[in-house]
Amino acid sequence: MSELSDKNLQGIPMKPYDLIREALMVLGGILIVVLFLAAFWGFPGRNYWPLTIKEVATKAPVAFLKRTISYFDGTSGLQTYGPPYTHDNENAQHIGPVCPACWAGVVFPLNAKEDLVMQPLKQIAQLDPSIAKALATYQEAGSKQQMAWDTAYTTALDKAQVKNGHVILPVGNYGPVPILMNGMLKFARAGLLEAALTYNTNPKLAPYETDYTRALLYLGGNIMNTVATHFHEQGYQWGMTHMAGPWPGAWWLWSYSFWYQIPLANSPSADLINFLIFVGILLLGITVPFNPLLRRIPYLIPVYRVIWRDWYARYPNGDPSRPAKKSRER
Amino acid sequence: MNISKFMQDIIKKNMTLEDLLPTQMPVYVNSFAYFFGTMTISSIAVIFATGVVLSIFGPDWWHFTAIGAFVNAMHFWSVEVFYLSVMLHMTFKFFKAAWRDGRERTWMNGWIIFAVSIFSGITGTLLQGNWDSQWNSQQGKDAFNAMGLGWLGWLNYTTVLTLHIVFFAAIVLILIMAHITFVRSESPVRPIVEEDEKYIEKAE
pLDDT digit string (tens) for A78-125? Predict the structure, then answer.
């Protein structure tokens, strides 16, 4: 044995053992358990497909249009998110001067109006002259006029009605905005928006682009929050510790999710605070051997006497040089 | 200096064949509490085996074929079994005060494996290609961005796949090999010796 083992096992009685045999037996047992679970329960997330933009545009057109116009008029939270998407450092999560997101900087620059709406609109304009005309009208108008149309349209969406899939707005002066937004709606309903967003990320890489940032961000906010609330997956609902439906998920992350259940979670920097607490918990675990309080717990709660009960039956104080008076060597 | 001879001496000193493939164990290794370490390693073996198959065939296979869905389910449940095993393993190692007699590095190494496995698990969730991965990528990006880790590209499927099946998998594998080497080189920790029937920490 190694020098360390020789030293550590001095005076300890040994028994025959077969490591490979035991390992194969346990592996076999685990394999049977996993096969059983997979056969009877399958993959819990199999019936919960991604939320597609097409699905939202078809089933909840007003929600889709509200999201789209928010990018178009620049009022979405994504436009002022801060690093890594925008330069709004004041919106980045921080604790005093500690702002890791600011230090990392804008590594994925995103202009939501241009990248999420204008680029697809320009592509739609190539297919539909009415969109091209509306787009030209909009771009030729002054910024004040554009803002007036955008604001009027956004307000009108609250009173919009959907009939046979058509979004009907109250009478008002929205300029070319409804035509543009309906163009986006049709494009989304055709199932083409995710592909366009991904393609536009880097057209030179078209068939190989796998950066789905734009497509995944598009439905963020109220739309995804509504679905997540339905599945009890919001942070305040223990979020990622479970999956959609009545299934276990990453239950081992309870020590992270826990911090979202207390008022601390209302802080605008909740993610940073909770993540740092979680890192702190991990560091606490790593350093137990050096922690004068935590390392004494096993001695105060002597579970070890249960674990090694056979040993303590033979050697009452654990010292093999002091066997129990009535004990016999096996 | 003969490097080969130097390495031979290190291996002879720290890891003999009897350590690597032991044929005897201390008699105190006779408890259910020793089961969970082997259970953890076994579940990791199933995770790796099923993960390799999944990564070869891809999302369409694991979602839309019967055999693919089954392997996907095995991968998922082996992760659940892994975390159950590792929690029990860590709990019993804690109550054994298993860091005694110079085993601090083994304890720390084990916790680091656990920490890395959490990131590995998160990237796995993001790869599922379902609502949960979509929602977790939406939510998780905020936490990672807040920590200054946004540059890793959590919404880029290739990046996440590489992190999951190469980067984190390799780190976990290397750390596990180190963990097993430490454990075998050190031998299983001895039962606690109580002085005068009082629970006094003898170590340190």
Answer: 999 999 999 999 999 999 999 999 999 999 999 999 999 999 999 999
CB spacing of A18 vs B23 below 8 angstroms: yes
Count of structural domains, chain A: 3
In terms of domains, do A190 and A246 share one?
no
Taking alpha carbons only, the member of A79, A108, A202, A116 closest to residue B145 is: A108
* In a domain? residue A48: no
Which value does ipTM take for this structure?
A: 0.91
Residues of the domain holding A150 = 53-222
Contacts of B87 in chain A (CB under 8 A): 252
Q: Looking at the structure, do residues A172 and A119 belong to the same domain, yes or no?
A: yes
**Contact flag A26-B195 (C-beta cutoff 8 Å):** no
A11 found inside a domain: yes
Contact at CB, B134 and A51, closer than 8 angstroms: yes
